[in-house]
Write a structure and sequence with these properties.
CATH architecture: 4-Layer Sandwich
Number of helices: 7
Distance between the termini: 6 Å
CATH superfamily: Ribonuclease Z/Hydroxyacylglutathione hydrolase-like
CATH topology: Metallo-beta-lactamase, Chain A
Radius of gyration: 17 Å
Strand order of the largest sheet: 6-5-4-3-2-1-14
Number of strands: 14
Order of helices and strands: EEEHEHHEHEEEEEHEHEHEE
Helix content: 10-25%
Largest sheet: 7 strands, mixed
Number of domains: 1
Structural class: alpha/beta
Amino acid sequence: MQLTVIGCSGSVPGPDSPASSYLLSADGFNLVLDLGLGAFGALQRHIPVSGIGAIGLSHLHPDHCMDLCGLYVATKYSPAAPLPKIPVYGPAGTAARMAQAYDLPEDPGMTEQLAFTTWSPVQEVGPFVVRTAAVIHPVPAYAIRVEHEGRSLVYSGDTGPAAALVELARGADVLLCEAALRDEDPANPPELHLTASEAGEHAQRAGVGRLIVTHVPPWFDRRAQARAAAKTFAGEILTAAPDAVYDI
């Protein structure tokens, strides 16, 4: 299983990275986790549109899902169209939300190009077993665990401190975890995001092999967030960067 970072900028696209999007590949199958603002173009540097096996959305904030609009256009109007429907897993109401985003009637919305399915606690997606757990955020949001041939990656999505994330990540090889807030800022909003040290704490409690710090807004320093996470996590810490590739 291989992870490619398509976009890792938190909350908005940054000058060097799209917003959240991550590509997991195994056995010739490509699973895209989130497709945030600016990510669809960057994704095509790595795989063609026809190579997208499925998409999983952690939640429906624009920095995690809005480039489905560009994907919809490509699958409907490009010379290669029509393409087989691409499965899209997400929270309840994803199809209606994306229809609204593109100002489409809800029926059919994007359903002639994309096959929407609401997350369940466990599902098979291509060669992967994908498990989800609801986490803490102002909208319905999920952490996502992807397993393949004994290896596992857990993606936090967006979350405040959440015991469910620790349980989902228990023993995972990699925790790809947001660290959108700085520890030193006194007025961090509650139940919205994790600080860097909280990301490290979740990784430590879950006993993961590696922590990849991601979703750092462009107004903060990614490497400083990774260093702060090292205060609470004793294992290897990496800093997500656009186009970085990791073997899981």
